[in-house]
Structures are given as C-alpha cells and as structure tokens.
Design brief:
single chain, two-stranded antiparallel ribbon
C-alpha cells in the first residue's frame, strides 16, 4: 500500500465521521424543533417586557414628543415672523367670519347714503393724533411704495434683459466690453450674499457663468479708481505700436505717390469687425521708385 492510498483512507474516515455527526444534529433538531421554537418565542416575549426594553421604549417616545414640540414651536415662530409688519401693529383677523362680522357692524353704524359715509370716514382720517389713523396710513403708504418699487424693478429688469439680448448677438470686441460692464454693475456684493445668482440669471436669460464672471471682474477692479469699462480691454504688449503710428503708416503707403489700386476689382481685402459687420479696402500696388545720387 502506497502513501497516497493511506492518506485517501484517512481522509475518507474523517469525511464519514463529519457526515454522521451532521446527520445526528439534523435528526436531533427534527425531534426537538417544536420545543426550540416555543422557547425562542417565549424569550422574545419575555424581552419585550423587561426593564431594559421598557426603558428604551420610553426614551424613544420622549424623544419623538420633544421633536414634535420643537417642530411645532419653530412653525409657529416662522409664521409669526412672516406675518409681523415692522413698526406697524395692526392685528389681522383669525378667520374670514370674524372679518365679515366686524365689517357688517361698521357698515351698520355708518350713515346710509354713500356721500355721508365717505364724509364720515374722511373726517375720521383727518384726526392725525389718533394712533389708529397713523398706523393705517403707514400701512397704506408702505403698500403703495412696495407696489411702485415692484413696478420699477420689473421695468429695470426688462430693459437690462433687452440690452443683454442685443449685446449677445454681436461678437465684436466692443460688444464684449459692454457686456462685461453691464454684468459687473448688476452682480455685486448684495447678489453674492443673498445667493441669488441663479435666479438673476434666469430672470435676465443669461447663463450663470456670465453673472459669476461679472462678479469676478467687479471684485478684482472695484477698489481701483478707474472704471471697469477701461480695465476690461484686451491686454497689449509693452512694445506694441500705437494707433496713431499705425494710422500714419497706413496713410503713407496709401498715398498716390507710394502706391496705387490694382486694376482687378476682385482684389479686395475684407476684415470682420463684428456680427455681420466688415471693413474692406482694395489691394494697393507699391510704386517702384529709382533714387539717384545727388552730385
């Protein structure tokens, strides 16, 4: 018998023992399954009535009640703050029925004819020392001012939106500078603190990055003495040729003594300066001059 066969026989005896043990456990569980499940159920029922379980249940209940009271308090506080009017203490009616009864009582106490009613109410509001009249006047004035402010804001937003819409279609350098100047004026510290860049962009019909870019430009140059319109021009090199010198060179070479237009009508140079805007000039042919030495 070789060593391999011995090893196989030992492994077979170990597997047989494991199989028998597993079968014994399964047979025992089948015989005692009813008792095992019964004890498990009783154990669960007993734990639900223990001091530890009751204490945890009480803690969860008290936490839920505290959270409910806290949310109710916050809801009442927010509603009270929303309905509160600064510097004017005018109580509002809790429901429409009380409002209807109060108005009916007031109408019944007033005269019957409309002219006398108007005269009575006007005479009542002429009493400037009455706190009721003062509070009502403040309320009316504040409402009128808020309406006028809303109308003004809507008109300004409409004008800015139309201007931005026109500038977006133009692709020239000047239009880009004007676009930057507009965005820098409408995106300042107040817009950043109130976090309403997205709303402002939706109102104006522009991407949010346009408003963000305007805020960046404003933050970079807002402390400078010069305006943002000047500082948003394209950067140039230190040794760049000035516009005056360029004009002198152009006038010199376009002079009749130095060059003349070519005879071909198709020899035209065209340069794009903006959206659907171009500048063009004819091709100039240089004149050949012969210089002789002076005696």
């Amino acid at each position: 018998m070789t060593g391999g066969s011995k090893r196989q026989n030992i492994q077979k005896r170990i597997d047989n023992k494991k199989g028998k043990r597993k079968k014994q456990k399964l047979d025992w569980y089948k015989r005692n399954a009813a008792n095992i499940n019964y004890h498990r159920r009783n154990k669960i029922q007993d734990y639900s009535q223990t001091d530890n379980a009751l204490r945890k249940r009480y803690i969860r209940q008290t936490q839920a009640e505290a959270k409910k009271r806290r949310t109710e308090y916050q809801r009442k506080w927010r509603s009270k703050r929303k309905n509160k009017v600064s510097d004017i203490e005018i109580a509002s009616f809790p429901n429409r029925m009380k409002k209807l009864r109060a108005l009916k009582k007031m109408k019944s106490s007033l005269p019957k004819t409309p002219t006398k009613r108007a005269a009575t109410i006007a005479a009542y509001f002429e009493n400037h020392k009455s706190p009721v009249v003062q509070s009502v006047r403040k309320k009316l004035i504040s409402n009128n001012d808020s309406r006028e402010d809303m109308v003004l804001l809507e008109a300004v937003m409409c004008d800015i939106k139309e201007n931005l819409k026109l500038k977006k279609k133009k692709r020239s350098h000047e239009a880009r500078i004007e676009m930057n100047s507009i965005t820098t004026t409408i995106s300042g510290e107040s817009v950043s603190k109130s976090r309403c860049k997205v709303k402002l962009a939706k109102k104006l019909g522009v991407p949010v990055r346009t408003i963000a870019k305007g805020y960046i430009i404003r933050s970079q140059i807002s402390h400078a003495d010069e305006s943002c319109f000047k500082y948003t021009t394209r950067k140039t090199r230190k040794d760049a040729i000035s516009e005056e010198l360029k004009r002198k060179i152009y006038d010199f070479w376009c002079a009749p003594d130095n060059s003349h237009p070519s005879g071909n009508k198709n020899d035209v140079k065209r340069v794009r300066t903006g959206f659907k805007s171009y500048t063009s000039h004819t091709v100039q042919v240089l004149r050949k001059k012969i210089y002789t030495k002076q005696p």
